[in-house]
Design goal:
The structure is a single chain. The chain is an alpha/beta fold. The protein has two domains: about 30-270 and about 320-395, Metal-dependent hydrolases (TIM Barrel, Alpha-Beta Barrel); about 275-320, no CATH class. Helices cover about 50% and strands about 10% of the residues. The protein has 17 helices and nine strands. It has helices at about 5-30, 40-45, 65-70, 90-110, 120-125, 145-155, 175-180, 190-205, 215-225, 250-255, 265-270, 270-280, 285-295, 300-315, 320-335, 365-370, 375-395, and strands at about 35-40, 75-80, 115, 130-140, 160, 205-210, 230, 260-265, 340-345. Strands 1, 2, 3, 4, 5 and 6 form a six-stranded parallel β-sheet that branches. It has a three-stranded parallel β-sheet with strand order 7-8-9. Helix 1 crosses helix 16 (about 365-370), helix 9 runs parallel beside helix 10 (about 250-255) and helix 15 (about 320-335) crosses helix 16 (about 365-370). The chain starts with a helix and ends with a helix. The model has no long low-confidence stretch (mean pLDDT about 95).
Protein backbone atom coordinates (compact mmCIF):
# COMPACT_ATOMS: atom_id res chain seq x y z
CA UNK A 1 0.00 0.00 0.00
CA UNK A 2 1.43 3.38 -1.02
CA UNK A 3 0.69 5.38 2.12
CA UNK A 4 2.60 8.54 1.04
CA UNK A 5 0.58 8.55 -2.20
CA UNK A 6 -2.69 8.18 -0.29
CA UNK A 7 -1.70 11.00 2.05
CA UNK A 8 -0.88 13.26 -0.89
CA UNK A 9 -4.19 12.52 -2.61
CA UNK A 10 -6.01 13.06 0.67
CA UNK A 11 -4.34 16.41 1.16
CA UNK A 12 -5.21 17.47 -2.39
CA UNK A 13 -8.84 16.46 -1.85
CA UNK A 14 -8.94 18.43 1.40
CA UNK A 15 -7.47 21.52 -0.26
CA UNK A 16 -9.92 21.29 -3.17
CA UNK A 17 -12.88 20.92 -0.83
CA UNK A 18 -11.65 23.82 1.30
CA UNK A 19 -11.27 26.04 -1.77
CA UNK A 20 -14.71 25.00 -3.02
CA UNK A 21 -16.28 25.83 0.34
CA UNK A 22 -14.53 29.23 0.42
CA UNK A 23 -15.60 29.96 -3.17
CA UNK A 24 -19.20 29.06 -2.37
CA UNK A 25 -19.17 31.30 0.71
CA UNK A 26 -17.62 34.14 -1.29
CA UNK A 27 -20.29 33.65 -3.96
CA UNK A 28 -23.09 33.98 -1.41
CA UNK A 29 -21.57 37.14 0.07
CA UNK A 30 -20.94 38.61 -3.38
CA UNK A 31 -24.47 37.94 -4.63
CA UNK A 32 -26.08 39.58 -1.60
CA UNK A 33 -23.80 42.62 -1.62
CA UNK A 34 -24.47 45.78 -3.63
CA UNK A 35 -21.56 46.01 -6.07
CA UNK A 36 -20.73 49.48 -7.39
CA UNK A 37 -17.90 50.35 -9.80
CA UNK A 38 -16.85 53.99 -9.62
CA UNK A 39 -15.42 54.27 -13.12
CA UNK A 40 -15.71 52.54 -16.50
CA UNK A 41 -14.81 54.10 -19.87
CA UNK A 42 -17.13 51.96 -21.97
CA UNK A 43 -19.13 55.06 -23.00
CA UNK A 44 -16.28 56.61 -24.96
CA UNK A 45 -14.66 53.25 -25.80
CA UNK A 46 -17.72 51.48 -27.22
CA UNK A 47 -21.13 53.12 -26.85
CA UNK A 48 -20.38 56.24 -28.92
CA UNK A 49 -19.12 53.89 -31.64
CA UNK A 50 -22.62 52.42 -31.78
CA UNK A 51 -21.67 49.12 -30.17
CA UNK A 52 -24.53 47.35 -28.42
CA UNK A 53 -22.92 46.40 -25.13
CA UNK A 54 -25.93 44.26 -24.20
CA UNK A 55 -24.29 41.81 -26.64
CA UNK A 56 -20.88 40.17 -26.22
CA UNK A 57 -17.86 42.42 -26.84
CA UNK A 58 -14.96 39.95 -26.59
CA UNK A 59 -12.34 42.49 -27.67
CA UNK A 60 -13.23 44.85 -24.83
CA UNK A 61 -13.46 44.55 -21.05
CA UNK A 62 -17.15 45.33 -20.83
CA UNK A 63 -20.57 44.12 -21.88
CA UNK A 64 -23.85 43.52 -20.08
CA UNK A 65 -23.52 39.73 -20.25
CA UNK A 66 -20.25 39.77 -18.33
CA UNK A 67 -21.48 42.54 -16.00
CA UNK A 68 -24.30 40.21 -14.94
CA UNK A 69 -21.85 37.36 -14.47
CA UNK A 70 -19.71 39.63 -12.31
CA UNK A 71 -22.67 40.62 -10.15
CA UNK A 72 -22.45 44.36 -10.83
CA UNK A 73 -25.41 46.44 -9.62
CA UNK A 74 -24.39 50.06 -10.23
CA UNK A 75 -21.94 51.50 -12.74
CA UNK A 76 -20.64 55.04 -13.04
CA UNK A 77 -20.29 55.48 -16.80
CA UNK A 78 -17.44 57.87 -17.56
CA UNK A 79 -18.26 60.66 -20.00
CA UNK A 80 -14.79 61.51 -21.22
CA UNK A 81 -13.06 63.54 -23.86
CA UNK A 82 -9.47 64.76 -23.90
CA UNK A 83 -8.34 68.36 -24.27
CA UNK A 84 -8.94 68.17 -28.05
CA UNK A 85 -12.64 67.88 -28.81
CA UNK A 86 -14.14 65.29 -31.15
CA UNK A 87 -17.12 67.51 -31.87
CA UNK A 88 -16.18 70.71 -33.75
CA UNK A 89 -18.44 72.61 -31.35
CA UNK A 90 -16.15 71.77 -28.45
CA UNK A 91 -15.70 69.54 -25.42
CA UNK A 92 -19.04 70.47 -23.83
CA UNK A 93 -20.71 69.20 -27.01
CA UNK A 94 -18.61 66.03 -26.71
CA UNK A 95 -20.03 65.45 -23.22
CA UNK A 96 -23.58 65.87 -24.46
CA UNK A 97 -22.97 63.57 -27.43
CA UNK A 98 -21.82 60.81 -25.08
CA UNK A 99 -24.79 61.29 -22.76
CA UNK A 100 -27.05 61.09 -25.85
CA UNK A 101 -25.46 57.75 -26.78
CA UNK A 102 -25.82 56.34 -23.27
CA UNK A 103 -29.45 57.46 -23.02
CA UNK A 104 -30.21 55.85 -26.39
CA UNK A 105 -28.70 52.56 -25.22
CA UNK A 106 -30.80 52.59 -22.03
CA UNK A 107 -33.97 53.42 -23.99
CA UNK A 108 -33.38 50.40 -26.23
CA UNK A 109 -32.98 48.07 -23.23
CA UNK A 110 -35.29 49.31 -20.45
CA UNK A 111 -35.69 45.86 -18.92
CA UNK A 112 -31.96 45.46 -18.44
CA UNK A 113 -30.71 48.97 -17.66
CA UNK A 114 -31.85 52.25 -16.17
CA UNK A 115 -30.36 55.68 -15.61
CA UNK A 116 -30.67 56.93 -12.05
CA UNK A 117 -30.58 60.46 -10.71
CA UNK A 118 -31.24 59.89 -7.03
CA UNK A 119 -30.50 57.48 -4.20
CA UNK A 120 -34.13 56.35 -4.27
CA UNK A 121 -33.91 55.54 -7.99
CA UNK A 122 -30.67 53.63 -7.45
CA UNK A 123 -32.31 51.44 -4.82
CA UNK A 124 -35.32 50.90 -7.07
CA UNK A 125 -33.10 49.75 -9.95
CA UNK A 126 -31.14 47.40 -7.70
CA UNK A 127 -34.38 45.86 -6.39
CA UNK A 128 -35.57 45.38 -9.99
CA UNK A 129 -32.24 43.65 -10.79
CA UNK A 130 -31.36 46.14 -13.51
CA UNK A 131 -27.92 47.54 -14.16
CA UNK A 132 -28.16 51.03 -12.69
CA UNK A 133 -26.27 53.59 -14.77
CA UNK A 134 -24.88 56.77 -13.24
CA UNK A 135 -23.05 59.44 -15.24
CA UNK A 136 -19.61 60.69 -14.23
CA UNK A 137 -18.11 63.49 -16.30
CA UNK A 138 -14.33 62.99 -16.38
CA UNK A 139 -12.65 66.35 -16.77
CA UNK A 140 -13.67 69.81 -15.58
CA UNK A 141 -12.60 71.28 -18.91
CA UNK A 142 -15.91 70.00 -20.30
CA UNK A 143 -17.90 72.72 -18.51
CA UNK A 144 -15.86 75.24 -20.56
CA UNK A 145 -15.46 77.64 -17.60
CA UNK A 146 -19.21 78.13 -17.44
CA UNK A 147 -21.35 77.31 -14.39
CA UNK A 148 -24.47 77.31 -16.56
CA UNK A 149 -22.99 74.40 -18.51
CA UNK A 150 -22.22 72.65 -15.23
CA UNK A 151 -25.88 73.10 -14.26
CA UNK A 152 -26.99 71.76 -17.64
CA UNK A 153 -24.85 68.63 -17.29
CA UNK A 154 -26.31 68.03 -13.84
CA UNK A 155 -29.80 68.24 -15.31
CA UNK A 156 -28.75 65.67 -17.89
CA UNK A 157 -27.74 63.26 -15.13
CA UNK A 158 -24.15 64.09 -14.18
CA UNK A 159 -23.60 62.52 -10.76
CA UNK A 160 -19.92 63.34 -10.38
CA UNK A 161 -17.48 65.74 -11.99
CA UNK A 162 -13.78 64.83 -12.07
CA UNK A 163 -12.24 68.29 -11.58
CA UNK A 164 -9.39 67.59 -14.01
CA UNK A 165 -8.25 64.86 -16.32
CA UNK A 166 -4.50 64.66 -17.04
CA UNK A 167 -4.82 68.12 -18.56
CA UNK A 168 -5.21 71.08 -16.22
CA UNK A 169 -7.91 73.62 -16.93
CA UNK A 170 -8.09 77.35 -16.21
CA UNK A 171 -9.34 76.77 -12.64
CA UNK A 172 -7.78 73.47 -11.45
CA UNK A 173 -4.39 71.80 -11.93
CA UNK A 174 -3.94 68.11 -12.64
CA UNK A 175 -1.69 65.52 -11.02
CA UNK A 176 0.25 65.17 -14.26
CA UNK A 177 0.91 68.89 -14.58
CA UNK A 178 1.66 69.45 -10.90
CA UNK A 179 4.15 66.57 -11.07
CA UNK A 180 5.85 67.10 -14.44
CA UNK A 181 5.13 70.68 -15.50
CA UNK A 182 5.02 72.64 -12.24
CA UNK A 183 7.44 75.29 -13.56
CA UNK A 184 5.14 76.23 -16.44
CA UNK A 185 1.83 76.39 -14.53
CA UNK A 186 0.15 79.79 -14.32
CA UNK A 187 -1.36 78.76 -10.99
CA UNK A 188 -1.40 75.70 -8.76
CA UNK A 189 -4.53 74.24 -7.22
CA UNK A 190 -8.00 75.77 -7.39
CA UNK A 191 -8.67 79.36 -8.38
CA UNK A 192 -11.59 81.31 -6.90
CA UNK A 193 -13.67 80.10 -9.83
CA UNK A 194 -12.57 76.55 -9.05
CA UNK A 195 -13.82 76.91 -5.49
CA UNK A 196 -17.13 78.18 -6.85
CA UNK A 197 -17.32 75.02 -9.00
CA UNK A 198 -16.92 72.85 -5.90
CA UNK A 199 -19.59 74.85 -4.03
CA UNK A 200 -21.99 74.56 -6.97
CA UNK A 201 -21.42 70.80 -7.18
CA UNK A 202 -22.25 70.53 -3.48
CA UNK A 203 -25.42 72.59 -3.97
CA UNK A 204 -26.54 70.47 -6.92
CA UNK A 205 -25.84 67.15 -5.23
CA UNK A 206 -23.06 66.22 -7.66
CA UNK A 207 -20.06 64.37 -6.21
CA UNK A 208 -16.67 66.08 -6.33
CA UNK A 209 -14.28 63.56 -7.89
CA UNK A 210 -10.60 64.12 -7.09
CA UNK A 211 -9.01 61.38 -9.22
CA UNK A 212 -6.50 62.94 -11.64
CA UNK A 213 -6.20 66.15 -9.60
CA UNK A 214 -2.88 67.47 -8.36
CA UNK A 215 -2.15 67.51 -4.64
CA UNK A 216 -2.79 71.24 -4.31
CA UNK A 217 -6.10 70.95 -6.16
CA UNK A 218 -6.96 67.94 -4.01
CA UNK A 219 -6.43 69.81 -0.72
CA UNK A 220 -8.09 72.99 -1.99
CA UNK A 221 -11.15 70.99 -3.04
CA UNK A 222 -11.34 69.03 0.23
CA UNK A 223 -11.25 72.34 2.11
CA UNK A 224 -13.95 73.87 -0.11
CA UNK A 225 -16.33 70.90 -0.10
CA UNK A 226 -19.05 70.60 2.52
CA UNK A 227 -19.90 67.06 1.37
CA UNK A 228 -17.95 63.81 1.06
CA UNK A 229 -15.69 63.56 -1.98
CA UNK A 230 -14.72 60.52 -4.01
CA UNK A 231 -11.69 59.41 -5.94
CA UNK A 232 -13.45 57.39 -8.62
CA UNK A 233 -10.39 55.51 -9.90
CA UNK A 234 -7.15 55.94 -7.96
CA UNK A 235 -4.77 53.64 -6.09
CA UNK A 236 -2.15 53.88 -3.33
CA UNK A 237 1.05 55.84 -3.89
CA UNK A 238 2.97 54.09 -1.14
CA UNK A 239 2.55 50.76 -2.95
CA UNK A 240 3.05 52.13 -6.46
CA UNK A 241 4.58 55.64 -6.53
CA UNK A 242 3.12 57.11 -9.71
CA UNK A 243 1.60 60.57 -10.19
CA UNK A 244 -1.98 59.27 -10.39
CA UNK A 245 -1.97 57.52 -7.02
CA UNK A 246 -2.76 59.07 -3.64
CA UNK A 247 -0.44 59.47 -0.68
CA UNK A 248 -1.13 58.56 2.94
CA UNK A 249 -2.02 62.10 4.03
CA UNK A 250 -4.48 62.35 1.14
CA UNK A 251 -6.08 59.06 2.17
CA UNK A 252 -6.37 60.36 5.74
CA UNK A 253 -7.94 63.58 4.43
CA UNK A 254 -10.54 61.59 2.46
CA UNK A 255 -11.37 59.59 5.59
CA UNK A 256 -11.73 62.78 7.67
CA UNK A 257 -14.02 64.16 4.95
CA UNK A 258 -16.11 60.96 4.98
CA UNK A 259 -15.34 60.18 1.34
CA UNK A 260 -14.09 57.08 -0.46
CA UNK A 261 -11.08 56.06 -2.59
CA UNK A 262 -12.08 53.65 -5.38
CA UNK A 263 -9.16 51.43 -6.37
CA UNK A 264 -8.07 51.55 -10.02
CA UNK A 265 -7.16 48.20 -11.64
CA UNK A 266 -4.58 49.48 -14.16
CA UNK A 267 -1.42 47.37 -13.84
CA UNK A 268 0.79 50.46 -13.91
CA UNK A 269 -1.04 51.96 -10.93
CA UNK A 270 -1.04 48.68 -8.98
CA UNK A 271 2.50 47.34 -9.44
CA UNK A 272 5.73 49.27 -9.01
CA UNK A 273 7.55 46.57 -11.02
CA UNK A 274 5.13 46.90 -13.91
CA UNK A 275 5.43 50.69 -13.95
CA UNK A 276 9.24 50.53 -13.82
CA UNK A 277 9.35 48.00 -16.65
CA UNK A 278 6.95 50.07 -18.78
CA UNK A 279 8.97 53.22 -18.12
CA UNK A 280 12.13 51.45 -19.29
CA UNK A 281 10.56 51.06 -22.75
CA UNK A 282 11.32 54.66 -23.68
CA UNK A 283 11.50 55.99 -27.22
CA UNK A 284 15.34 55.97 -27.16
CA UNK A 285 15.29 52.33 -25.97
CA UNK A 286 12.85 51.44 -28.74
CA UNK A 287 14.94 53.23 -31.38
CA UNK A 288 18.11 51.48 -30.22
CA UNK A 289 16.44 48.05 -30.36
CA UNK A 290 14.79 48.59 -33.75
CA UNK A 291 17.91 50.10 -35.32
CA UNK A 292 20.06 47.20 -34.04
CA UNK A 293 17.71 44.51 -35.39
CA UNK A 294 17.27 46.42 -38.67
CA UNK A 295 21.03 46.50 -39.25
CA UNK A 296 21.22 42.72 -38.70
CA UNK A 297 18.17 41.77 -40.78
CA UNK A 298 17.72 44.66 -43.19
CA UNK A 299 14.01 44.61 -42.32
CA UNK A 300 12.75 47.52 -40.20
CA UNK A 301 9.17 46.19 -40.13
CA UNK A 302 10.39 42.87 -38.75
CA UNK A 303 12.45 44.77 -36.18
CA UNK A 304 9.37 46.68 -35.02
CA UNK A 305 7.38 43.43 -34.69
CA UNK A 306 10.20 41.94 -32.61
CA UNK A 307 10.16 45.02 -30.36
CA UNK A 308 6.42 44.68 -29.82
CA UNK A 309 6.77 40.96 -29.06
CA UNK A 310 9.64 41.62 -26.67
CA UNK A 311 7.86 44.38 -24.72
CA UNK A 312 4.64 42.38 -24.49
CA UNK A 313 6.50 39.37 -23.08
CA UNK A 314 8.47 41.49 -20.62
CA UNK A 315 5.34 43.25 -19.34
CA UNK A 316 3.42 40.00 -19.05
CA UNK A 317 6.17 38.67 -16.80
CA UNK A 318 5.57 41.48 -14.27
CA UNK A 319 1.81 41.86 -14.66
CA UNK A 320 0.28 42.12 -11.18
CA UNK A 321 -2.31 39.74 -9.78
CA UNK A 322 -5.60 40.17 -8.00
CA UNK A 323 -3.65 39.80 -4.76
CA UNK A 324 -1.73 42.97 -5.60
CA UNK A 325 -5.00 44.84 -6.17
CA UNK A 326 -6.37 43.72 -2.82
CA UNK A 327 -3.09 44.85 -1.24
CA UNK A 328 -4.19 48.40 -2.15
CA UNK A 329 -7.58 47.85 -0.53
CA UNK A 330 -5.89 46.29 2.49
CA UNK A 331 -3.49 49.23 2.79
CA UNK A 332 -6.30 51.78 3.03
CA UNK A 333 -8.25 49.65 5.50
CA UNK A 334 -5.22 49.34 7.77
CA UNK A 335 -4.47 53.07 7.47
CA UNK A 336 -7.94 54.56 8.04
CA UNK A 337 -10.49 51.74 8.33
CA UNK A 338 -12.91 49.89 6.08
CA UNK A 339 -15.34 52.80 5.53
CA UNK A 340 -13.27 54.68 2.98
CA UNK A 341 -12.35 52.32 0.14
CA UNK A 342 -14.23 50.99 -2.87
CA UNK A 343 -13.85 49.75 -6.46
CA UNK A 344 -13.09 51.97 -9.47
CA UNK A 345 -11.83 49.57 -12.13
CA UNK A 346 -11.24 51.94 -15.09
CA UNK A 347 -12.16 49.05 -17.39
CA UNK A 348 -12.06 49.94 -21.10
CA UNK A 349 -9.87 52.90 -20.24
CA UNK A 350 -6.70 50.96 -19.41
CA UNK A 351 -4.26 48.94 -21.49
CA UNK A 352 -3.29 46.29 -18.95
CA UNK A 353 -5.29 44.58 -16.22
CA UNK A 354 -4.10 42.30 -13.40
CA UNK A 355 -4.22 38.52 -13.61
CA UNK A 356 -7.58 37.45 -12.25
CA UNK A 357 -9.32 40.71 -13.20
CA UNK A 358 -9.38 40.34 -16.97
CA UNK A 359 -12.84 41.86 -17.48
CA UNK A 360 -16.07 42.84 -15.70
CA UNK A 361 -17.05 39.21 -15.07
CA UNK A 362 -14.22 38.81 -12.56
CA UNK A 363 -15.37 41.02 -9.65
CA UNK A 364 -16.23 37.92 -7.55
CA UNK A 365 -12.50 37.17 -7.38
CA UNK A 366 -12.10 40.28 -5.22
CA UNK A 367 -14.66 38.97 -2.76
CA UNK A 368 -12.91 35.61 -2.59
CA UNK A 369 -9.52 37.24 -2.00
CA UNK A 370 -10.94 39.48 0.74
CA UNK A 371 -12.57 36.47 2.39
CA UNK A 372 -9.28 34.54 2.24
CA UNK A 373 -7.62 37.43 4.07
CA UNK A 374 -10.10 37.25 6.92
CA UNK A 375 -12.40 40.12 6.01
CA UNK A 376 -15.87 39.88 7.53
CA UNK A 377 -19.05 39.84 5.50
CA UNK A 378 -19.85 43.34 6.79
CA UNK A 379 -16.48 44.74 5.70
CA UNK A 380 -16.69 43.09 2.28
CA UNK A 381 -20.12 44.62 1.68
CA UNK A 382 -18.77 48.06 2.53
CA UNK A 383 -15.83 47.69 0.15
CA UNK A 384 -17.85 46.30 -2.76
CA UNK A 385 -20.38 49.12 -2.74
CA UNK A 386 -21.65 50.10 0.67
CA UNK A 387 -19.13 52.89 1.12
CA UNK A 388 -19.91 54.51 -2.23
CA UNK A 389 -23.62 54.11 -1.54
CA UNK A 390 -23.17 55.95 1.77
CA UNK A 391 -21.45 58.85 0.02
CA UNK A 392 -24.16 58.94 -2.65
CA UNK A 393 -26.88 59.02 0.00
CA UNK A 394 -25.15 61.93 1.74
CA UNK A 395 -24.86 63.87 -1.50
CA UNK A 396 -27.85 63.31 -3.80
Amino acid sequence: MNLPGLKTRGLLCFLLLSFSAAAQKAGRIHNKAVLIDGHNDVTSASIVEGRDITQSQPDRHTDLIRWKKGGLDVQFFSVFTGPVARNPKGVYADANDQIDSLEALVRRHPRQMMLAGSYKEIKKGINEKKLVALIGVEGGHMIEDNLDKLDALQKRGMRYLTLTWNNSNSWATSALDETLHADTLKHKGLTDFGRSVVRRLNQLGVLVDLSHTGEQTFYDAIAASTKPVILSHSSVYNLCPVFRNVKDDQIRAVAKNGGVVCINFYSGFISRKFDEKLTSFSEPAKKHFVDSVSRQTGDSLRALRQWNTYTKKELEAVRPTISDVVDHIDYIVKLVGDDYVGIGSDYDGIGSVPIGLEDVSTYPNITLELLKRGYTKRSIRKILGGNILRVIRASF
